Amino acid sequence: MAERPYIVGNWKMNGTRTMLSEARAIDRAAQRYMKVEVALAPPATLIHAVHKEAEQIGIGAQDCHPGEFGAHTGDVSAAMVADAGAKFVILGHSERRGGHGESNALIKQKIESALAAGLRIILCCGEDLATRDAGSAEDFVVEQLTASLPDIADAAERLTVAYEPIWAIGTGRTAGAGDIAAMHEAIRALLVKTYGKQQGGEVRILYGGSVNSDNAREILAIGEVGGALVGGASLTAENFLGIVVGASEAMES
Ligand code: PGA
User: Which residues are catalytic?
Assistant: First the structure.
């Protein structure tokens, strides 16, 4: 596991201002677990409000448009989410790829635009079940990342990769420890090839897909797993903090 595990909650399209109390509770409790880096990505409508509540945790966005501004009804730019208080943006999530037809090329453009706006990036990747069953999951993920990793020289410093097998998201199924380890090693090898040993070696690689307080410790103990991207279990402070505690304990053992 990484020196300081990174536990990121992705609220997806959940949350109105009534959920600010959960964000506050997560933030206050996170101050007791300084060995863990905790962050939340609320929906765009709540970024500013959660940012104002947060003293300890990082706040991010779940998407941004590749352009700087203009006639794009309903979209928000990287500069806009940064202005609202986001310090990072999740890009390439399978729900964006699947639900909005996002290609690797578009994701790469979004990454470059987000980096230009001063944001950090969590770049998601992951295969569907047919690809996993066909035995080509690693080739598929390496191809996804090769086509979307930014070419900018110092990008690695602001990059986190999240491996999220699509079939594990919101399903209660998690990938086996051996498969997670093999995938994370393949991703690490690509990062080292792209950014060099030092910088590519330091990029954190998260696991995501049905992570909860029962399985977090075990998953975080797998080599090259530097944290977790958490959907459903991040919606209440109680569930999310169970994962943070697990990560903190994993650091101590
Ligand atoms: P899940 O979602 O934890 O609900 O499976 C993870 C994600 O999509 O980031």
Answer: 93, 164
